Amino acid sequence: MGKTGSRTLLCTLATALASIGAAQAAPRMVTPLPAGWRFIRADPEGAETPTLDDASWQVVTVPHDWAIAGPFDPNAKAAGENGFLPSGVAWYRKTLDLTPQPGRRYFIEFDGIMERSGVWVNGHHIGYRPMGYVSQRYDMTRHLRADGHNVIAVRADTSAAPSSRWYTGSGIYRRVRLIETDDVHIPQGGAYVRATAISDAQATIAVTTDVQNDAGAATDIKVELLLTDPDGREVARTVTPATSVAAGRTINLPAEIALPRPHRWDINDPALYRASIRVLAADGTLLDNEDVRFGLREARFDPATGFWLNGRNFKLKGVALHQDGGAVGAAVPLAVWRQRLTALKAQGVNAIRTAHNVPSPEFLDLADELGLIVMDELFDQWNVAKTPEDYHLFFGDWHKRDTLDMVRRDRNHPSIVLWSAGNEIHDSAYPVQAKAALRSILDIVHAADPSRPVTMALFRPNVTKDYDNGLADMLDVVGQNYRENELIAASKQNPKRSIIGTENAHNRSNWLPVRDYAPFSGMFLWTGVDYLGEANRSGWPNIQNPAGLLDRTGRQKISGMERESWWSDRPVVHVVRNADPAAAGPATDGAGGPNQPVLPTMIAVATPKPKVSLFDDWTPQDRSPHDETIEVYSNCRQVEAFLNGRSLGTLPINADASPRRWAVRYAPGEVRATCRDPGGEAVSSSLRTAGKPVRIELKPDTATVGSTFDDMVYVRARVVDANGVTVPSASQRLHFAVKGKGQLIATDNGSSVDHTPFSSPDRAAQNGLAVALVRGTGHGRFTVTATAEGLRAGSANLVAAE
């Protein structure tokens, strides 16, 4: 699968559905197209023509982000917005050994091309999309050659830079597939499954299926629907009455089916059903089929009490996420998202806002599987620009189609409970224009998906009078970025408004209003993970925005430790060293690190980062006796602190969520904090003083890793002393190597100012830490080693799976 000309059936539909009794099985065929693409970072004349000699072009696999290879350049055209990484025009070409058959349609589908993309088949231009985040499906049928030699050419253009405020990547950075169907088929996004009623005894499942007839004559068809439960057992089946589809027309066929004893999808029990949808001819011949995974849940936003899921009222404890995966750029293996989302959920995060665009389909699949709630966002700008070359140039011509395509693609995901029409849209300064644009988006979303509400991240609503001129009240749920007390005032001004914090800073002063005001449905922190780009305010040499709960390598930061103590349902204790307890707590915001002062957001993001005073070590530069402060983040009712085994006393939890602190005279050794709640004594955290660096310790996140694009594992390196304590001052340059059935993908250390290419096997330790990203190359074993001058080498053994 994936080689030129290969054919694979989608999942196991051909065998699973054959038993239903079709007279002749001709299911759709889906072939992933990851391999064999020819690539050039240039704009050669005639690159779309089938006769072009591309033998000298580089051979790559997709997903592919060519910009992440660098180099980092202070003079890069896209500058800090794009992390000082390159932009420009690139071409991809692939030859398909595909012989078209009568009565069949052939589509090529791209999940994302960054950006201003054009697609050609055998020299014929078949499509163009300016947006880089929208999925694209093109019908190639009439341009295919009968001899089977077919050339696909793709032009991806990020030369109009900057066209975004964060790192976007460049090229065919998401998945590609060939789809073969009958002339009578389900178009892209044409299958929609939702529950219209749910009780413990029964759910009513409504399925609407678009059927498109590209044949030369009318066809009588019916739709057969089979539902299977989370254990794979058939639980319901129905068939629609026969109807006729005229040639060249598309009809919508609704069906309802009763599902007994429904198993609800929930954040702690993400149960997923499957709907197998089959388009049949009047004689039972199978024309087309599609498999849709879905979940049953009751989600609603209440103006008085906030968010409800399946009869439970709780806060959305969310984070915003950009699409890059750090060292891998925008072409992100699923393993990266699994590591990050699992780590975020472990510290109490239950919701994700996709900022500021729809994510990849597999990201949403993973959110479904992990039980994470999603706000799926559509746009970062409408008609008014944020950067000179951004989507505002295309909004008027393209937003209707882009909105419809994005909603139709994603609407079956149970994780999505809320659509966002836009982020900090500057059109709001022109209310007539803004309301017309919003009405256009709302009408499309509500028609395509009547099951979910729509919000948007209002920018400065009190400045542009959104709460007075009617714009805010066009929304199903009113969202506002930052300024939580303004949103509370808007709620009190009109108690019919449901409200959500669409973007929020990390300060305790931002959390308490959300926590303590019942109508506040929740918040989405900016941001969950450090991300490349948006470094224009800080400027070179900075390449990223370090505002995450996790760093670029998926490691929990001190801000994440504090957030976990506020958001987690399990006992949590984290101990850190605070070298400046007089300053504000461990808040971060758009540009800040730990200990950012509490400032209005738009001031804070433009303010130089203050001196870091919070450390997850007990190794200050000054080893002589001096005053230090032990700071503890915990949700335990009582916590006891110790210095070298001597109790410093027990402190109760603070009602205002502030950390507990113990002032001590520094002495080398060990600091420890322990939960003293009944049954919580095993929950503790400790820091030890580090000595001189002696060796490198390697530890993989998992011991087994696969060999496909989506497989990857972080091998985490620590520079440690003789007792195995991480040396925070260690900055040796580590050299990573892989021997056996594995390969090195990239290295990283989470630094904002390291300009070493991510593909380099050499990486300086940052605070004594670095990572290697590796995957398998087939079935067998492999060893990862890390060496550095003056240190004993480290190694880790892994097992590779095919």
Describe the structure.
The protein has 10 helices and 51 strands. By secondary structure, the protein is mainly β. The strands form 12 sheets. The protein has an 8-stranded parallel β-barrel with strand order 25-26-27-28-29-30-31-32, surrounded by 4 helices. Strands 3-2-4-9-6-7 form a 6-stranded antiparallel β-sheet, with no helix packed on it. Strands 14, 15, 16, 20 and 21 form a 5-stranded antiparallel β-sheet that branches. The model is unreliable at 1-24 and 584-610 (pLDDT under 50). The radius of gyration is 27 Å and the shape is globular. α4 runs parallel beside α5 (431-448).
List the helices and strands and how they pair.
Layout: H1 13-18, E1 29-32, E2 37-40, E3 58-60, E4 89-97, E5 104-110, E6 117-121, E7 124-129, E8 136-139, E9 149-157, E10 176-182, E11 184-185, E12 191-198, E13 202-213, E14 219-228, E15 234-239, E16 243-245, E17 250-260, E18 265-266, E19 269-270, E20 273-281, E21 286-294, E22 299-302, E23 306-309, E24 312-313, E25 316-321, H2 334-346, E26 351-354, H3 361-370, E27 373-377, H4 395-410, E28 416-423, H5 431-448, E29 454-458, H6 461-464, E30 478-481, H7 484-493, E31 499-504, H8 508-516, E32 520-525, E33 531-532, E34 544-545, H9 558-567, E35 573-578, H10 601-604, E36 614-615, E37 627-634, E38 638-643, E39 646-652, E40 660-665, E41 670-675, E42 684-688, E43 695-700, E44 704-705, E45 713-720, E46 733-740, E47 742-748, E48 762-764, E49 769-776, E50 780-788, E51 791-800
Parallel strand pairs: 25-26, 25-32, 26-27, 27-28, 28-29, 29-30, 30-31, 31-32, 44-51
Antiparallel strand pairs: 1-10, 2-3, 2-4, 4-9, 5-8, 5-10, 6-7, 6-9, 11-13, 12-13, 13-17, 14-15, 14-16, 14-20, 18-19, 20-21, 22-23, 23-24, 33-34, 35-36, 35-37, 37-40, 38-39, 38-41, 41-42, 43-45, 45-49, 46-48, 46-50, 47-49, 50-51
